[in-house]
Design goal:
single chain; binds zinc ion; TIM Barrel; mainly beta; Jelly Rolls; four-stranded antiparallel β-sheet; 15-stranded mixed β-sheet
Amino acid sequence: MVRWLALIFLFLASPAWAADAGKPDLVLTGQVLGADHQTYKPVTFDVPEGVIRLTVEVDYARDQKTVVDLGLLDPVRFRGWSGGNKKRFTVSAEDATPSYLPGPLPAGRWTLLLGVPNARPNSSAAYEARITFERRPGVTNFAPGPLKAAPGWYRGDLHMHTAHSDGSCLAQSGVRAPCPVYRTVEAAKARGLDFIAITDHNTTSHYEAMAELQPAFDQLLLIPGREVTTFQGHANVFGPTAFIDFRLGDPSVPTIKALQDAVAAAGGVFSINHPSSPSGEQCMGCGWTVPDTDYDQVQSIEVANGGSQRAQGGVEGPLFGVPFWEAQLNAGHRITAVGGSDNHDAGLTPDTPGSVGRPTTVVHAEELSTAGILAGVRAGRVFIDLDGTRDRILDFSARSKAGAAAMGGVLTARKGEAVAFTVSVTGGEMAGVEVIRDGAKLPVAVGANGAFTVKMGDKASWVRLNLRDAQGRLLLIGNPIYLIPLP
Ligand SMILES: [Zn+2]
Ligand SMILES: [Zn+2]
């Protein structure tokens, strides 16, 4: 029975940092003996070429008061020492578990160092070290598993900057200083968010701080992100931590296709930011002007940007991203609209557009993990809460004789068939629901029970919703259901 429990525990505790974590690549076993008392016992292993993340998990028998401390050396240098405080750690080029140093992972002979502060004479304690190699960039979760396992609506901010790019906030004396990552994380916690993606410009240096903060913020998912910032537009990439070359136009990244292919290969979500911002000397490279963009490799577009809202004194000005997004939908692409604060100062008060969580993107996901939220963004059951409330919801579904679809989904029906939609709203009035088809407002009234119908046309179309307050102010922006006529 005890052995079974131990096996179950090992299974639950298996490493989940790596996208392809699971079965370890190496299992090193041995004994710590009485003769090892107060010595350092090297356990060597070979790391092959091409490894980008290495995760080590160690168990040993403690019943005879044996104590084992852990450290790591690569072929060149010391990589850290965690003593007896961690049984599992990970190192990669961009981040490492606290106690360990991030950096390249050279191929060759590595050493897991077992320090033995205590082993009784004639004792023998079995140890097992499980070592996992990640070879391809993939989606990284800084937590060992999902923070919540249940499906539901999760609220977050997908665009923010810290000291690792141009984020600043007030230092003790009141002068402006590069803003450390923890301030952004604290602000998101205070706002009651479920997830944030920190998206510093082109760098990967903030992941180290995020990996350190995640265990202490076990109800706020920290999603790896970066704002790929080119001379012709900005796009957030969510999920992978490995470096992605941003130098569009340079021989290393001659075309946007090369960049989009690299993101796709790493399992990342490619999300165009503030597409309607100006370009030129006023805002260099801000608007999206990249020729040959493959919109089938764009998973989301930031249609509401907190910084733009602040700059133009409202949501629906010339910087609003909805017209750009709807033009891509009308061209036949299925792309999820998201929002982002584009926060550059974690100290902004919550009533200010562009403060952390304003706007908020609300994602229906199977679980609160990086993979779960990104799958939710791809699936498109997503709305944007412009005020960043904790409770407003805008959702809808559609039904035809051929089937049913949720927001983000695809529904088929015969030409001319009345497709039945059902809306649900929390924190607003049904009278404030606006129905939009192919970019134009439809003159349909949504019933008090949330019902309305739309006739299936001759060609593919899409229907989505907005929610406004009694004064006509936009509160929520919804994503489409895509309608496909049957011949
Ligand atoms: Zn930007
Ligand atoms: Zn930004």
